[in-house]
Amino acid sequence: MWEIRKANINDIEAVTAIYNRIHKMEAEGLVRIGWNPSIYPVRATAEEALQRGDLFVYEQDGTIMASAIINRTQVPVYATGQWAFPANDDEVMVLHTLTVDPICGGRGIGRQFVAFYEDYALREGCSILRLDTNAVNSIDYTADADIGIDDVAEDAVGDMLKDVGTQHRHDEDTEAEARGRNTGS
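Structure (tokenized):
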């Protein structure tokens, strides 16, 4: 049985271990993410997100297999992005630092996290979703997802902003929710 939920203090070790395994894989040339292991993401990244209340984890049978930061924080370069769906800040939810434990890869966990993110954003009143990822990231958790994604902008440090085309889905979901569809918690 699995669930995606807000993280708690007991999850920090597991989240940090996932970050470290990903950094190790990148150092070994097995993946390209573009993160600096001494800067981001590190334990403090998870601790700060936990304090803000925007760190989420994917847990299956007591094991943390993935994490992400989900909030309304848009980095300054977002202001210059050529968005397919322009929006006010209060309409936008951003997915940052989506990490799946390399030990658990290939199970669709990343896609499940993206689907959770879409539903969470809609429940929070955000019809526009943005994915903050690094331009050199070789892992695309959204490749098989049923969403349209456009690369929008790249800032000086290589963060790629992706405009997730969910406006059409928002309209469908609003109608479905009016009929009582359960979107989870």
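Confidence is low (pLDDT under 50) at residues 140-185. Residues 2-178 form a domain with the Aminopeptidase fold (CATH 3.40.630.30).
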